[in-house]
């Protein structure tokens, strides 16, 4: 890269939007550079989706082995090699990361620039940016810098070697008793993972009276009951106010004068956008009160020529929405500009059983003013679930009573993140649930429960 090099598009951050967008725009004959200060792949590849699902898979095997007697098998003892579990997950990360790196080899368009990039101003040629000791100019700039763990205001936390979503792969000592601050997606998934590895786990859930507060109460209660059945402890309507090291562990000071002693601490209290040192003020780009970069449905900021994608743009913070952001931006920058963020966004909590979710909760639908039809079926009534011994959970569908269109669905079931896609596709098509009701599904399958719910 030459000093003062000029590009049509400059992308800051090699996450799930930035990488495919760089390649796609280069394929449209635009000159493109992508700056990444550390590793390609964003949070998903490096410490999120990829390694957590790999580790959760190991935990699932351990859990199934402990249930062997239910299937007529004898496995006298299940021995967990915790460092080996993390090595497996890390190996998958490194392989995926290497594949991404290879995509930028032997090509100067898109060009991969290693280093921290920030705005330095603008002139008639475009936006001026610095990357390390270099300077570049670009007509359009895409921000895809992602998020990091939000550190809560807990006194003494800075003096504790805590675990979080960004460093857990490096913490190879299996906790004896793990305290987790936060009862959201990350907190629950990691609670079950560590519990199945052999740790005692206590989740401090915050001021809300339920896990995953956004979900309907019946869904949240079912998740909690399943996790409690595996020995995970929950402390609700309480907050961590302070923490200190004691002996070989730590002591959490909770509100109301309570205390909790544990050997390790995992902080899972949300995500914070990485926008601290981007030089946004030099180009007049404002940050919202939530610390995100506000965009419209086209992912355009209020500064013409600057766009934002992925977690920093607010809204749903999922890998799949970040990846779809690249399609929105490709449409805006090199297409017919027809694709926007007006979309159906599903998500999942990868506990076991999984929660696959799309659309409104029942509470949201009623508050919005819909006359709703609520349908529910228990997984213990599904033949395949019964036969494979995976009967925990249920499916709940919320539909518009006037026309049968699905407003939302919650699939708490084995492979729930897969099964929910039938409802997702119907919602994208604007089709009524009668389409599923009148179809023929294979027997025996878990997908029959998807149909049974709307019969």
Keywords:
455 residues; alpha/beta; FAD/NAD(P)-binding domain; Enolase-like, domain 1; 3 domains; 7-stranded mixed β-sheet; 5-stranded parallel β-sheet; 13 helices; 22 strands; 26% strand
Overview of the structural elements:
There is one protein chain. The protein is built from 13 helices and 22 strands. It has 455 residues and is of the alpha/beta class. It has three domains: 144 residues, FAD/NAD(P)-binding domain (3-Layer(bba) Sandwich); 113 residues, 3-Layer(bba) Sandwich (FAD/NAD(P)-binding domain); 100 residues, FAD/NAD-linked reductase, C-terminal dimerisation domain (Enolase-like, domain 1, 2-Layer Sandwich). Strands 1, 2, 3, 4, 5, 6 and 17 form a seven-stranded mixed sheet that branches. The protein has a five-stranded parallel sheet with strand order 8-15-9-10-11, covered by helices on one side. A hairpin with a 2-residue loop joins strand 12 and strand 13. Helix 1 runs parallel beside helix 7, helix 3 packs antiparallel against helix 4 and helix 3 packs across helix 5.
């Amino acid at each position: 890269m030459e000093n003062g090099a000029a590009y049509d598009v400059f992308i800051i951050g090699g996450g799930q939007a930035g990488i495919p967008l760089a390649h796609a725009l280069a394929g449209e004959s635009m000159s493109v550079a992508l700056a990444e200060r550390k590793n390609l792949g964003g949070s998903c590849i490096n410490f999120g989706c990829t390694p957590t699902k790999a580790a959760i898979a190991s935990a699932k095997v351990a859990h199934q082995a402990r249930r062997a007697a239910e299937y007529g098998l004898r496995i006298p003892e299940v021995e967990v090699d915790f460092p080996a579990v993390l090595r497996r997950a890390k190996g998958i990360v490194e392989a995926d990361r290497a594949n991404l790196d290879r995509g930028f080899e032997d090509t100067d368009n898109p060009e991969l620039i290693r280093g921290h990039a920030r705005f330095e101003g603008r002139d008639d040629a475009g936006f001026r940016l610095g990357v390390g000791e270099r300077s570049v100019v670009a007509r359009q700039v895409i921000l895809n810098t992602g998020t990091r763990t939000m550190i809560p205001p807990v006194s003494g936390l800075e003096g504790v070697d805590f675990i979080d979503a960004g460093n857990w792969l490096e913490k190879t000592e299996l906790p004896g008793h793990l305290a987790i601050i936060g009862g959201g997606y990350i907190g629950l998934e990691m609670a079950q993972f560590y519990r199945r590895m052999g740790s005692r786990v206590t989740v401090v859930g915050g001021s809300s009276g339920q896990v995953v507060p956004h979900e309907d109460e019946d869904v949240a209660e079912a998740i909690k009951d399943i996790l409690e059945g595996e020995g995970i402890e929950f402390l609700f309507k309480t907050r961590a106010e302070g923490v200190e090291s004691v002996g070989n562990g730590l002591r959490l000071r909770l509100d109301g004068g309570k205390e909790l002693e544990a050997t390790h601490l995992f902080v899972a209290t949300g995500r914070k956008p990485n926008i601290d040192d981007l030089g946004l003020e030099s180009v007049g780009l404002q940050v919202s009160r939530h610390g995100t970069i506000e965009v419209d449905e086209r992912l355009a900021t209020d500064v013409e020529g600057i766009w934002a994608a992925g977690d920093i743009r607010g809204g749903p913070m999922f890998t799949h929405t970040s990846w779809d952001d690249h399609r929105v931006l490709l449409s805006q920058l090199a297409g017919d500009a027809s694709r926007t963020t007006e979309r159906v966004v599903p998500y999942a909590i990868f506990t076991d059983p999984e929660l696959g979710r799309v659309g409104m909760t029942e509470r949201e639908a009623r508050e919005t003013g819909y006359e709703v039809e609520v349908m529910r079926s228990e997984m213990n009534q599904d033949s395949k679930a019964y036969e494979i011994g995976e009967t925990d959970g249920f499916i709940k569908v919320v539909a518009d009573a006037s026309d049968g269109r699905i407003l939302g669905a919650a699939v708490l079931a084995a492979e729930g993140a897969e099964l929910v896609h039938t409802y997702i596709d119907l919602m994208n098509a604007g089709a009524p649930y009668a389409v599923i009701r009148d179809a023929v599904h294979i027997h025996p399958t878990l997908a029959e429960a998807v149909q049974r719910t709307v019969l």
